[in-house]
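ping. complex inputs:
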Amino acid sequence: MPGDPLAMIMRNPRASAEAIEKTKELFGLGEAWYMQFLIYLQNLFQGDFGLSFIYKKDVLEVIWDKILPTVIMVGLAQIVAIIIGVLLGVIAAWKRGTKIDVISLSFSLITYSMPTFWLGIILISIFSIGLGLFPTSGMLTPGKTFLSTLDMIRDGTVHLVLPVLTLSLVLIGEYALTMRNTLLDVLTEDYMTTVRAKGFDDKYMLKKHAVPNAMLPMITIIAINLGLTIGGAIQVETIFSWPGLGRLMYEALNGRDYPLLQGIFLLITISVILANLIADITYSYLDPRVKS
Amino acid sequence: MNTIKQEMRKKRVEAFYQSFRSNRMGMIGAVILIFFIVISIFGPLFFPFNPLEFGEPGNVLRPPGGSHLLGTDNLGRDIFSNLLAGGRVSLMVGLLATVISMFLGTSIGVVSGFAGSKTDMILMRITDFFLVLPWLPLVLVLAAILGTSIWNIILVIGLTSWAGTARVVRSQTLSLKERPFIERIRSIGADDKTIIIRHILPNVFPLVFANTILITAVAILSETTLSFLGLGDTTRSSWGMMLHYAFQSGAASSGAYWFFLPPGICVVLVVLAFTFLGYAFDEMLNPKLKRR
Amino acid sequence: MELLQINNLKTYFEISAGTVKAVDDVSLTLNYGESLGLVGESGCGKTTTALSINNLLPDEGRIVSGEILLEGKNLVEMSDREIKKIRWNDVSMIFQGAMNALNPVMKIGDQIAETIVLHQKSSFREALKKAEELFALVDLEPKRISNYPHEFSGGMKQRAMIAMALACNPKLVIGDEPTTALDVMVQAQILNLLYRLRQELNMGLILITHDLSILGETCDKIAVMYAGKIVESGDVEDIFNRNKHPYTHKLLSSFPNIHRERIMPEAIEGIPPDLINPPPGCRFHPRCPYCIEICRSEEPAMTMESKGHYYACHLGGVHNGK
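pong. complex structure:
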């Protein structure tokens, strides 16, 4: 394997042969690769994720306190993006072809074509450096003593704004586009003509008939999207030095810390599978055609 | 008999060309793309400077002006030249990775759809697996293991983005398989291989084509992101690598907009161009999407 | 005063290929409690005529000229707000049940109740009660108003739609192919239901179909449409037994008749007309076996054969093939 982890650990060139052997044994690196894999699986089931090369601690321990920052940032960004994205998509579909539709479409396309990290860099240079409104990195101002929890929350919130803004801008673009297309499909359905024939106004038609039908596939899409959101989160956390799993992965990557990498990857994969499962269950609960 | 076929084909190509010209999105995309392709091929002939040549210490991070059209980067290298060179690399990686992805996706999709039953089930499970897995973490892990040469990056991107194409191709194959003309051809004795090559593939091709263009956009974005996160080929200058150096050297904080803005803008333009083209072809080739 | 009077209605569609003259100078009359069958092949303009009444046309369509008088009031001149009050309250529609005409994620009872809440200012609970009564009226189990559309069979969905159309006690109900895609037994049941309801409620009914055979039992009058124009109209007897227009005759004879002699039904030659550039003169002339010179250049005017029976043909009418 390139970037020999052994060499990385044993940065001390004067480490004795004995010490090297000991480390090898500790990390199981001496065995054949399939043995390593089996040992890994075995350890996994016992709750042992292995030892991080960089941190020299249990991988699980390292990951543990990075989970919350990521959940806060990504969670907030998702909520904001879903609300605004869906609204934008509905407006764009309803006013199809007008200025609003074109603007919202252009917005979606541009954010879709932009690397997430680049958007972050631009936002930093405008709002942090240029306008001095927000800090450029971290979750809390380093070295600051907080007078109360409220004070700490205020500080944390100020740090949250740019990362959440970056991530949600990208998501909004995608959700708006998808909602627009889904809603357009729904609006061509026969039952929408029936509703119109009943004499209802546009607002009612949208709210009670069109949007509920369009939201169903949206749920599935949001769930599938979770995997991609993680990609965005990694970039955002890296740019803003946000102390979450994304930045941890970046560190593990550059340090070639395989156990850590595997641990994070495993955790991410499990979360995505879980999210998809929840989405499936929610969908079958909401769609009367599936309930029975 | 042959001339009638030729006549028909000529008419179809003409009609296609006509409808393309009237599609504004497609035209914009095509123009932008041609611009970048021409620049990438011929640009390097006009390098004012050797992109990799370090400048004198005093010439570092100079704003645009004088002999350096777009200024210099943190090591005194000319940004404009790097931009031209980077275009070549970014485009090449995008295109090659897409070729791999398209080849894989189409083959798996056609075989899966055509063979049916167990083969279909197994292949679809694998496809779903790749579809659901969060993409960036997967790519990061693979890239970390395989190494960062440019060919590995192309391979990695290609190996992780075929699932969508496979799905689309499979459903198209399934619907084609049921069409009566397939039965007729079988009854005159054509074997599976002939059917696939001469009848299914040509009908699947338009769909694959539109899909491929969109995948190229994603591939270019992927390479940019990978390089930015430190997994790029350091021996070559790509737009992503430029952004990597920009970030590493704190260009955002020091306001060196000429460093991080141009490569990003190029990426956005090229990705937009491919997206426009992809949508344009999709609209033209997919009768369902045609606006009334 | 008549319930519905349509005078010289013209409804056109603007599409990229040109202007489709879907309804080109159509006039009809319907009295209270009468039922009119609007018949013709696909694309002849019957659905468009019906949709024009309530202004349910899609974006590309618009009423170019003419009047639609509902109890004397011209619907064409009404504002959007006024039309919305008319919809369902005075004029309701029954769509093809096989279509996706019911919202799949909303209970059927709710879909009926919402119209009552809107137009009759009732509470939701009272509206649901009314929905149950309506279900009983159409021979559906009242408790099933809490079902979703996919839980009903085709025939049941059609009944539900009829119940829904009656929710606000409309004066006029328009049925657009209400029995197409239903099997024959169910078709008969639905038609009987419509007949019975019409008697009980004294409402006007316009039945749109391409199937002439169902009109004999349920309609008082029939209007035959071709290429956006009415070619013959009259009461059922006139149309079935004393028809004058070649197209009407062809239409009738393309249905096998179990009582008459066993001859092959004759198909109507030719293809449906292009509504962007309709044939000059009489629109039916390219497919008419009796076409003469004048048919190719001059449009025939409506001639009266007897009271209430009109037809548009230069030949002074064809009777039973002669």
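The interface with chain B takes residues 15, 60 of chain C (CB under 8 Å).
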